[in-house]
Known about the structure:
It is built from 5 helices and 5 strands. It has helices at 51-61, 72-89, 91-102, 107-120, 131-149, and strands spanning 3-4, 10-11, 20-21, 27-31, 36-39. It starts with a strand and ends with a helix.
Amino acid sequence: MTLSCSCGVQYTKPIKVWPLRCQCGQKYILNSETLTLKEWIEPPAPPQNGPGTQLKMLLADLGIRNFSGCSCKSKSAQMNRWGVEGCREHFNEICEWIDEARKNVNWSTKIIAAITATTNGLAFRIDPTDVAGSLVRIAIERAENATLQS
C-alpha cells in the first residue's frame, strides 16, 4: 500500500508512528475506512485555569500534592477539558475519584490538611460530611470566577 502526501511525497513502508509528519511539515493520520491519509487536526489545548487546575491548587492550599497511586495530573486535565459545565455533569464521578484517592492518604497528611484548612479559612467552606463534594464545588466556583475575570 502506498500513501501520498499532498506535497507529492509517497510512503510505501509500514508507518509505525502516528500522526505521521511529512517532510513538508504536514501531519496526517490514517483514515481507517479508505486507508488513505487524512489531515491531522491538533486538538485544542485544555484551559489552564479550569476546574481541574483549581482543584489541584485547592489541594495544594491544604498541603496535599501528588502522591503514590494518584493520577492527579490526568484527572485534572480531564476536568479542565470538561470545563465548568462538564464538571457539574460529572460531579459524582469526580467525587468518587477524590474519595478513592483519599484512601491512599496517610493520617498525618489528613491531620496537616485539617490544620492548614483551619488556618487558611477553608475549614469553614468544607463540609466534614462531604469533603469531596465541597472540594469539587469550590474548585468549580473558582474556575467560574476565573473565567468571568478574564
